[in-house]
Amino acid sequence: MAAEGGQPAPKSEAPEKKDQAAQADQKKADQKKASKDQPKAGAAAEPAGEKKLSGAELKKKAKEEKAARRAAAKTTQPQPPAGAPAQSDAKSGSKPKPKQDGPGQAAAQHGKIPAPRSAAPVTAAPKEVKPSIPDYFSHLAMAKGVNITHADKDVHPAVLVLGQQMSTMAISDSTTRLEATLLAFKKVIDSYTTPHGTTLSRHFTSHVLNPQIVYLTACRPMCFSMGNAIRWLKLQISKIDIDMADSDAKKLLCEAIDSFIHERITLADLVIVNTAADMIDEDDVILTYAHHHLVERALLKAKANGKHFKVILVDDPFERVGLGHVKKLTAAGIPVIYSPDFGALRTNLQESTTVLVAAEALFSNGAMYARAGTCDVATAAFDLGMRVTSLCETINFTERVSIDSLTYNEIDPERNTDEEFRLLFDTTRDKYISAVVTELGICSAKSVPAILRKLEEL
User: Fold this and answer.
1) Which pLDDT belongs to residue 25?
2) What CA–CA distance (Å, rounded) separates 448 from 366?
3) What is the reported pLDDT for 175?
4) pLDDT score, position 227
5) Mean per-residue pLDDT for 31-35?
6) Where is the composition biased (Basic and acidic residues) (predicted)?
7) Strand, helix or coil at 441?
8) DSSP string computed for 357-382
């Protein structure tokens, strides 16, 4: 009985030990799972004291906290402007550094100059803001400086210098610009060498001459005499025999340019000056406007011929170019009355016997293209019944037609703002012009088409 009663005890202990072992295994599994989830809840677990973190876990936690602080600092800082280089501190692991000051900000901190608004590095100087021109004047051109470095590589150095002189108005009147242009083209021709496989007459105009013209036009719009001379020069180039040697062809062109300057400019000016001087009578009172080399030479020639007369000079109120003119006339012994503007124009006209002006060009309909203000003088003289004589070379005649001052003109680059701007020239109708003196003689303004046809036959 005792043996039977003691045997069930071992049998009952076995299931109990199995249960304990299963519970231990379950507890180990739970601990293992908790250890895997510990990094996700590290921040919350440690304060509660549930489990002490290992060294690796503490290091990982510190990195996460540092990343969180960095992200929070970035959100509080202002965003850099578009195009500014982004700064990253991910590799260094340090706190975000403030943007470094540029030269402008460093000087501003010392009170030298104001700091720039943006911390972005300055890569280039700000572009110059040009005054806006109303749309209805947008067709008018204006002389402007062209950076030599932006010019075509084929532009000759002599042409580069000429373009800069034109853009700064160092060479202003049409005849002087024409002569300087032809002399520069002579240097271009002298330095030209025809490439292998082509000829001068077929290669020079398109590949060499045209880049020079484009550059000069970019510096300042071509005057009418320059356009006439360039068309003439291209015609001479096209006439060169393709079998002619380059040296002979270049010599022929240079001689043609010299003859053109001598006949159409030098001799033409001489004839016009002599004719205008002969038209001046004894004791005349001649009113002229501003300054033109033809008028100045005509007055000096008349004085050299022994005539006694007086000059009233009404100057350009914007440029005062007549001051030098007055000095030359006075030095030659010619009495001069100087008027700085149009305030006393009608009074001065009433004291005068004739008006002598010069033109920059004459249109086919007889209109005169001249310095701004010439039209005011001519119309006021016409109202008083006075004679208005214009001096002009035939190289300045054009087949174009104009009835106002806005079809063809230039904007004064020195007097151009957002509020106002000034035009360099004006147009005078043919009815206000009594006579035109050219190298071909004295004619009326309406004779321009006939003279143009005669020049084409020569």
Assistant:
1) 63
2) 6
3) 94
4) 96
5) 56
6) 13-39, 48-68
7) strand
8) EE-SEE-TTS-EEEETTHHHHHHHHH
Q: Give the max Cα distance, the chain.
A: 176
Q: Is the pLDDT reported for residue 133 higher than 80?
A: no
* Residue 348: both structure tokens together: 């001065």
Cα gap 378→62, rounded to integer Å: 93
Residue 190's identity, in one-letter code, is D
188-to-39, 145, 265, 404 alpha-carbon distances in Å: 83, 22, 21, 37
Query: Using CA atoms, how far apart are residues 60 and 68, in angstroms rounded to an integer?
Result: 13
* pLDDT for position 71: 77
In the chain, domain spans: 135-266, 280-457
Nearest alpha-carbon partner for 223 in 19, 374, 419, 409 = 409
Coil vs helix vs strand at 9: helix
The superfamily (CATH) of domain 280-457 is Translation initiation factor eif-2b; domain 2 (3.40.50.10470)
Beta strands in 15-70, from DSSP E residues, in sequence order = none
Is 378:433 a contact under the CB 8 Å cutoff? yes
**Which of 1-5, 329-333, 334-338 bottoms out in mean pLDDT, i.e. has the lowest?**
1-5
CA atoms within 13 A on the CB side of 285: 11
Mean pLDDT of all residues in 235-261: 95
Q: Does 1 have pLDDT greater than 60?
A: no
181-212 residue pLDDT tens? 999 999 999 999 999 999 999 999 999 999 99
- CA dihedral sign of residues 384, 349, 392, 422: negative
Report which of 352, 351, 369 is spatially closest to residue 360, judged by C-alpha positions.
369
Residue 137 is classified by DSSP as G
Query: How many CB atoms are closer than 10 A to CB 339?
Result: 18
Question: Quick one: pLDDT at residue 154?
Answer: 87
How many Å apart are CA 444 and CA 433, to the nearest integer?
A: 8
List pLDDT tens digits, range 256-312.
Answer: 999 999 999 999 999 999 999 999 999 999 999 999 999 999 999 999 999 999 999
Cα gap 95→118, rounded to integer Å: 22
Give the Cα separation of 3 and 247 in Å (integer). 144
Contacts of 301 (CB under 8 A, 6+ apart): 273, 274, 276, 277
More confident site: 118 or 268: 268
Q: Helix count (H) and strand count (E) of the chain?
A: 17, 13
Spatial separation of the C-alpha atoms in residues 211 and 152, rounded to whole Å: 7
Strand 368-371 to strand 425-428: parallel, antiparallel, or no bridges (unpaired)? antiparallel
Among 363, 358, 371, 398, which residue's Cα sits nearest to residue 169? 371
